[in-house]
Specification:
By secondary structure, the protein is α/β, with parallel strands linked by helices. The chain is built from 21 helices and eleven strands. A seven-stranded mixed beta sheet has the order 1-7-6-5-4-2-3, sandwiched between helices. The protein has a four-stranded antiparallel beta sheet with strand order 8-9-11-10. A hairpin with a 5-residue loop joins strand 8 and strand 9 (about 450-455). Bound molecules: pyridoxal-5'-phosphate. The site of pyridoxal-5'-phosphate has 15 residues, from helix 10.
């Protein structure tokens, strides 16, 4: 008899919270039927994740957000239990999972979230079961030691220091090569926190910015503001960090990009000269290079940025949340050349390390730089202890390092390099296919595995290049509407998902252009699937064309 046969939903009898039941919930399922229901669902999750997700979760189910909001509007916590564990698991799998998004589908090519190797679920489960808190050694012991080791492994991947350096620092309680964070946002925030404090350290009569705050720091250093320079394609987490650190997000200064979406080096130089001429009113806290911009995947010229920072004694941060793992590819590692000169580097675990949500990391070239954000308390995190909470922005933290450490052993850098190369090469082939189709325009050529394109028939493109500024704008507005609608219709149809963004292309097209943004990281996404996606978009376009006045006017 299968577990399906054994299990029937628990009848509606009143459930009561009592001490014995409570204690049992710490130890085991309530009965054999509950155990069977857990096994029924956990087995396919643990051993056949891909087919499980395909069966249970479409890319999306056709239910409006309004309808969902109406379904989930209860604000009451019942005093006694509402459901048994088996019923809750059944709800999660049968009712909720199908309404979530199947990010594991190879047709889901719209975001930096994708399928993960099936064993990640096992590793995550073990980490949850161990429930270590790596804020301090007393709740983690060997796990904190392993965390330091895995941080050193990734540090070595980035900075390639010699063996003596790692012998000295891998387990040194006084130095820190990096830190796990909740994600890229907090990794960037940590980098800028350190850079800010390093820019306004304690000196005679001044206790440092961390201690006395921004206003006193400005007074002590005779400046009026602290600024950070980054390409205008910088992730919005940098603005959050600037706000949070008291610098003001308007002091995150956006620098224009070239036609390949890389930060314009001449503009950076010009901006730094301009700032230096303002009579010392502004202190440059950091310059940020991006190794894989969120929208187009472009990599800034990191070596040139490092040189500028070196000449001007500015903290150089690289946001490699996306592109960092490219370092593991022998074939494409050169794309992120110059990252080794960065004072700090952000890398996300839950992006191209294919870890489950959520995991970010921040690394520092100088193992003592995190001293600028060290905090101690009397009950933990005492000076000289291995307590990792001394220098982390977060307090309590899960043992993500165990997942990364185990995964590096299972995959090897070669395994990751195969994934990276598949993504980059499939993106290049996809770009070539887009170029071949007369209804599409490739907008950004992929450097990594991200590309953008739009529906723009070749005759319209021709017209655009010759049009006056106002005509350009008119055509472009109509194209934007078509692309916006196509993306929405495709998303709502629920078979595939490509995201959408808006890029600034003033000279060429008279304004902002709406594009499809495609991120290829699922190893099961191939050219057959990508062709199906383009076919689907072309079909939607034809329908819009047949039914839409504005499109016909545009083409006339
Ligand atoms: C370049 C870049 N930096 C930072 C982030 C923020 O990362 P997270 O969402 O993990 O906080 C992202 C997210 O997409 C990103 O693409």
């Amino acid at each position: 008899m299968t577990s399906d046969d054994q299990y029937t939903p628990h009848p509606k009898k009143e459930l009561v919270a009592d001490w014995n039941t409570l204690i049992r919930t710490f130890l085991k399922p309530e009965d054999e039927a509950s155990r069977n229901i857990l096994l029924k669902y956990m087995e396919p999750i643990l051993f056949g994740l891909h087919s499980f997700l395909n069966k249970h979760v479409g890319i999306t189910e056709e239910v409006s957000l309004k309808e969902l909001a109406a379904r989930y509007n209860s604000t009451h916590i019942s005093a006694n239990p509402e459901k048994k564990l088996a019923d809750v698991i059944t709800d999660l799998i049968e009712d909720i999972a199908p309404l979530a998004v199947n990010v594991a589908s190879p047709y889901f090519i719209g975001h930096m979230t994708s399928a993960i190797p099936f064993f990640m679920v096992h590793l995550k489960t073990i980490v949850a079961a161990l429930n270590q808190n790596v804020v301090k050694l007393e709740t983690s012991k060997v796990v904190s030691i392993i965390e330091k080791q895995v941080l050193a492994k990734i540090h070595r991947l980035i900075y390639k220091k010699d063996q003596a350096f790692y012998d000295e620092h891998v387990q040194n309680p006084y130095t820190t090569l990096g830190c796990f964070t909740d994600g890229g946002t907090l990794a960037n925030t940590t980098a800028l926190w350190v850079a800010r404090n390093a820019a306004f350290p304690p000196k005679d009569g001044f206790g440092g910015i961390e201690n006395e705050g921004f206003h006193s720091a400005c007074r002590a250093y005779g400046v009026e503001r602290g600024v950070i320079l980054v390409s205008r394609l910088g992730h919005y987490s940098l603005r959050k960090a600037s706000g949070l650190l008291g610098l003001g997000n308007q002091n995150l200064i956006p620098i224009d990009v070239d036609d390949k979406n890389k930060v314009d080096i001449d503009e950076i130089r010009a901006k730094i000269s301009e700032i230096k001429k303002d009579g010392g009113k502004s202190k440059i806290i950091a310059v940020i290079g991006i190794a894989g911009t969120t929208e187009t995947g472009a990599i800034d010229p990191l070596t040139a940025l490092a040189e500028i920072c070196g000449e001007n004694h500015i903290h150089f941060h690289v946001d490699a949340a996306w592109g960092g793992p490219t370092l593991m590819s022998e074939k494409y590692g050169h794309l992120v050349e110059g990252i080794e000169f960065a004072d700090s580097v952000t890398i996300d675990g839950h992006k191209q390390f294919y870890m489950p949500m959520t995991c970010g990391m921040i690394y520092f070239k100088n193992p003592t730089l995190m001293e600028h954000v060290a905090y101690h308390s009397r009950y933990v995190n005492r000076p000289g202890s291995v307590d990792l909470g001394i220098k982390s922005l977060a307090g309590s933290r899960e043992a993500n390092s165990l997942i990364l450490d185990s995964t590096l052993k299972i995959m090897g850098s070669k395994g990751y390099s195969l994934l990276i190369e598949h993504g980059i090469e499939t993106a290049k082939n996809f770009a070539a296919e887009i170029r071949k189709r007369r209804n599409f325009q490739l907008v950004t050529q992929p450097e990594l595995n991200i590309l953008t394109y739009r529906l723009c028939p070749s005759d319209i493109l021709e017209k655009l290049t010759q049009a006056s500024v106002s005509e350009k704008q008119r055509i472009n507005d109509a194209l934007n509407e078509i692309n916006r609608n196509t993306q929405r219709i495709e998303r709502e149809a629920g078979k595939s998902f490509v995201s959408r963004t808006t890029l600034t292309r003033k000279e060429a097209y008279g304004g902002e252009i709406v594009v499809f943004r495609c991120v290829i990281m699922n190893p099961m996404t191939d050219m057959n699937i990508l062709n199906e996606i383009l076919d689907e978009q072309e079909n939607i376009f034809r329908e819009i064309f047949e039914n839409g006045d504005s499109v016909r006017r545009l083409l006339s």
